[in-house]
Amino acid sequence: MPTMRDFSTDHRWLSINTATVRKQRGVDWPLLDILDACAERGIRAVSPWRDQVASAGLRATAARLRAHGQVLSGYCRGGMFTYSDEAGRQAARDDNRRALDEACELAAPCLVLVVGGLPGALAGQAAHRDIAGAREQVAQGVAELLADARERSMPLAIEPLHPMYAAERACINTLEQALDLCDTLDPQSDGAIGVAVDAYHVWWDPKLQQQIERAGRTKRLLALHVCDWLTPTTDLLNDRGMMGDGVIDLPRLRGWMEAQGYAGFSEVEIFSHRWWALSGAEVLDTCVDRHRRCV
Questions:
Q1: Are residues 45 and 73 in contact, defined by beta-carbon separation less than 8 angstroms?
Q2: Among 133, 164, 204, 255, which is most buried by a count of CB atoms within 10 Å?
Q3: Cα-Cα end-to-end distance for the chain
Q4: Strands 23-24 and 27-28
Q5: What dihedral angle (degrees, nearest 10) is formed by the CA atoms of 12, 13, 14, 16?
Q6: Contact present, 47 and 266 (Cβ < 8 Å)
Q7: Secondary structure of the chain: what % helix, strand, coil (to 5)?
Q8: Within 10 A of 16 (CB to CB), how many other CB atoms are there?
């Protein structure tokens, strides 16, 4: 087994998902200011969210990244493929094409996909209860987007979400499901589609090591997201933990990834009212420290 990279002496492989610091002291923190603060701390990679990029401006974001010599570890996000009518289907396709174009402009290594759940559920009223049908729509939507992604040479990274999100956000809930879809759409495994492994969503899965090994064999490990699972968790969306504060064995998970050849960034992605209540500087400094000690 290859030796794991030593993160204890520097943070060259740390990336900040900008949702982690989208607010400081409860107030929105502009994306360009986040990029500046990351650069001041020698954080050389980020993964911005589309709404933050839209607020800052796509060209302005790209220019600031170039000025700092920063790169992306991924781009959040495409997906939300499920629909209840033809207009919804076309709207999803158009939005995902725009997401691809933005990812290309920012030179992202992949576009992360959160595939969607039952149509309407995120807004509070599901159009139906047919989760199998929703998964069929996801497969169709990813297949269509894959053709567009190949034209742009932009890899797609399916991110399976914890089963608690199956209704509202993603009906692909295990790494096995995500890899099954990848293998169906891309049997030759040419690098066009793979997976984003988010510790928060997959840490509990008894097949996790097996499926990471499978993903390694087919060269589908495109991204690693880290945070922690708190006990108790008080908010299933916005109470993620800082690395080291919860129950996830992050070094073991990273070890499984690196044993399969993963050599990319570990991207800190924390949705948390607790951390958004602090200053952005404090959160970033803590991320640097915990990345060295707990990942």
A1: yes
A2: 255
A3: 18
A4: antiparallel
A5: 110
A6: no
A7: 45, 15, 40
A8: 30
- Contact (Cβ atoms closer than 8 angstroms) between residue 79 and residue 114: yes
pLDDT tens figures, 186-231: 999 999 999 999 999 999 999 999 999 999 999 999 999 999 999 9
Instruction: Identify whether the C-beta of residue 166 lies closer than 8 Å to the C-beta of residue 117.
Output: yes
| Residue corresponding to tokens 């060269």 | 219
Q: Using CA atoms, how far apart are residues 67 and 60, in angstroms rounded to an integer?
A: 10
Q: Which residues pair with 23 in a beta bridge?
A: 28
What is the separation of C-alpha 48 from the centre of its chain, rounded to a whole number of angstroms?
Answer: 10
Lookup: tokens for 57:
């401006």
Q: In residues, how long is the chain?
A: 295
Give me 49's structure tokens: 């969210």
The per-residue pLDDT for range 18-66, each reduced to its tens digit, is 999 999 999 999 999 999 999 999 999 999 999 999 999 999 999 999 9
**Residue 103 CB-density burial (10 A; 0-12 exposed, 13-18 middle, 19+ buried):** buried
Q: Average pLDDT in the 135-159 region? A: 98
- Distance between CA atoms of residues 271 and 262, nearest Å: 25
**Two tokens, residue 10:** 């520097």
Q: Which amino acid is at 35?
A: L
φ, ψ of residue 93 in degrees (nearest 5): -65, -45
pLDDT in tens, 67-120: 999 999 999 999 999 999 999 999 999 999 999 999 999 999 999 999 999 999
Dihedral sign computed on CA atoms, order 226, 232, 234, 236: positive
CB contact set of 145 (below 8 Å; sequence gap of 6+): 78, 81, 93, 96, 97, 100, 113, 156
Predicted TM-score of the model (pTM): 0.98
Task: Locate all alpha helices (DSSP H) within 84-229, ordered by sequence.
Answer: 86-105, 131-152, 175-185, 199-202, 208-217
